[in-house]
């Protein structure tokens, strides 16, 4: 997707727009975030945030101005190294909601990291959520997840339908 097109489409989501940057897909993410001067925080906490700092996911709030969104989109260009989301809630509430499902149980009951913030995973996973999973992923905090669908190369917004029984994922 063209960078300027992405900026124009996402601009309408400001000031409610957040991004989750996947450090595992961009080894320079943490250095860029530090230099960019945007409000951000690692989604991991404690010792894991220190040990996995270079591979960790980072939440950042893009605020009400176009400049932070433009800086982020221009830095990453066509590389899809994370997802966007919308919320009317404070940064702390959004981070707390996103931290709820960083770890999941695998088929053999082993604990695994769940990289839902990777657009390749979001595009497959989000449209399949059931009612209970919608509550887990969106809660009362997240209004929508926005990502570039790798199969269509279109900016897609996933949000629960009003009765919260399913998620619709449609280009916008």
If you had to describe this structure to a student in words, what would you say it looks like?
There is one protein chain. The chain is an alpha+beta fold and 172 residues long. It has one domain (3-162). It is built from 7 helices and 9 strands, in the order H-E-H-E-H-E-H-E-H-E-E-H-H-E-E-E. It has helices spanning 3-11, 29-36, 46-51, 66-76, 91-99, 119-125, 131-137; strands spanning 17-22, 40-42, 57-61, 82-86, 103-105, 111-113, 144-149, 154-160, 167-171. A 7-stranded antiparallel beta sheet has the order 2-3-1-4-7-8-9. It has a two-stranded antiparallel ribbon with strand order 5-6. Strand 7 and strand 8 (154-160) form a beta hairpin. Helix 1 (3-11) packs antiparallel against helix 4 (66-76). The longest helix is centred in the middle third of the chain and has 11 residues, at 66-76. The protein is globular, with a radius of gyration of 15 Å.
Summarize this, please?
The chain has 172 residues and is an alpha+beta fold. The chain is 33% helix and 25% strand.
Please tag this protein with its features:
alpha+beta, two-stranded antiparallel sheet
């Amino acid at each position: 997707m063209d960078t300027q097109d992405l900026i124009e489409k996402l601009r309408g989501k400001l000031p409610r727009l957040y991004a989750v940057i996947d450090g595992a897909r961009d080894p320079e993410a943490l250095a860029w975030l530090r230099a960019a001067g945007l409000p951000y925080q690692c989604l991991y906490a404690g010792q894991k945030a220190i040990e996995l700092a270079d591979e960790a996911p980072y939440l950042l709030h893009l605020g009400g101005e176009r400049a932070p969104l433009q800086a982020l989109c221009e830095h990453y260009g066509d590389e899809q190294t994370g997802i966007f989301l919308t919320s009317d809630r404070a940064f702390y509430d959004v981070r707390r909601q996103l931290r709820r499902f960083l770890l999941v149980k695998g088929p053999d009951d082993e604990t695994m990291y769940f990289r839902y913030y990777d657009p390749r995973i979001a595009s497959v996973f989000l449209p399949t959520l059931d009612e209970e999973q919608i509550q887990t992923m969106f809660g009362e905090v997240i209004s929508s997840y926005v990502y570039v669908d790798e199969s269509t190369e279109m900016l897609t917004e996933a949000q629960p339908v009003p009765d919260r029984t399913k998620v619709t994922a449609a280009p916008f």
